[in-house]
Write a structure and sequence with these properties.
The complex is a heterodimer of chains A (162) and B (300). Chain A is of the alpha+beta class. The longest helix of chain A has 22 residues. Chain B has 300 residues and is mainly beta. In chain B, 6% of the residues lie in helices and 29% in strands. In chain B, the strands form four sheets. In chain B, strands 6, 8, 10, 11, 12, 14, 15, 16 and 17 form a nine-stranded mixed beta sheet that branches. A three-stranded antiparallel beta sheet of chain B has the order 3-4-5, with no helix packed on it. In chain B, a hairpin with a 5-residue loop joins strand 4 and strand 5. The longest helix of chain B is centred in the first third of the chain and has 5 residues. Chain B is elongated and about 85 Å long. The chains are: A alpha+beta (162), B mainly beta (300). At the A-B interface, helix 3, strand 3, strand 4, strand 6 and strand 7 of A face helix 2 and helix 3 of B.
Chain lengths: 162, 300
Amino acid sequence: MPRTAAAIATVVALAAALTACAAQPEPEPEWTEEAAYAEAEEVFRAYIAASDFESHEDESVYVTGDLRELHDGEDVFEGHDIQTRGESVLTQFTPTSFRTVGDEASVDALACFDDSTFEMNIDGGGWTSPREDPIYAVELSFASVDGELLVSHLDETAALEC
Amino acid sequence: MLIVVGSALAALGIIPDAAPLTDFVLPDECTYQQLRAGLCEAGGDPGLAIGGHQHQPGSQPPAPEPPSRPGPPGGQTQPIGGPGPGTGPETPAGPGGEPGGWQCLDPAQQVIGGTCLTDPAPDPDPATEPEPSAQPPAIPPLTAYDVEVFVPTPAAPTIEPFGVAIARAPMNVAIATASQTVGGELFGLPMSVTFTPELLTIDYGDGTIAEVAQAAPTWEQLGQEQLSPTATGHTYAERGTAAVSVDVSYSAVVDFGPWGIHPVGGYVVAEGPTTDVHIYEKQSYLVAQTCAENPSGPGC
């Protein structure tokens, strides 16, 4: 009898242990290429929407690294009366690379803008198209911060014909 | 740092020359507002955004320079004439009788036109520069992007045995990695950045990718026999050619000298060159004679 009880107790303990193991969900991969690319585009669109001259959103929440430093630094437009009309259209967003190291992810991308209708009136000086080339390409980098992709680099590039 | 000595807006005349927009410092970045305003145009008039230097991926880092205030370095344009009528104090016309406007020189002393809006005031006396200890520069948190232009390129991997692989037998990928220190300039300050290899990502070219920590030794360094399995080895299923590469992920710290040592957040990934590996097939036959003795025998 004691031997039977011990066997039953062992089986119960083993079953409980296996159940405990099974209850632990398999960790999901932190990043997938598709998800990272989609999130990168979403974050970039949110950033440019918040960066509108008339917007009162804080666009710096979408950036990190050097770009964050730039946003936190001196605002070259401060003290000027800036009016805008027309629109800037993001015509193309092309992710070019995705990397993960441990839990961190980074995405590089190229994008095209069409600012053909965009004009600025600065300090009442009259409406003018501020760019020589209203259709232009930019290079972008994104880096993960606490599990969210943020724009870490933004600059014009000649690497893409828009 | 990209030193902007004249803005597109000022050049277009929509901002007065004296406006503070005409002379400021941008890092190798632009905000979206600056992009829309044409302050970062890549293919535009070179007279609009020139001077200083800009690091490009793959380029050699610049030689270290002594610390300086943010401002136009030696590459800035130099005004050689005065502003024209209606744009500022009256000055005589140029030597050729051309009407007014700034005439500017690029670093090669070539006239580049009237879009140079740099303050003609001379650079401040270096003797009046504050001591580093008196006015420490503000160094932001460093990210991998800040130092990626300095990252050393990994060497090509050593493929064992003898640069080839044998199908269904272990091969080995070895690569020598070590901490490396590179000098350069960051945020206008001289510094040295030390890269320490933390992770190797080996792409075997057949869809298999392995990550190993820090080291990929040879069979000899491991004290193992040839064609024995290793942590960085792989067994190809069939013959052919595979493009093998090893990317090295480095952690980094930046030493700004008197301004301290700053860690870099994240890893800097250096992509290694690709090596084509021919995968051969080995077949064994038990035969009665050598190929020299019987050239038409099996496998000869």
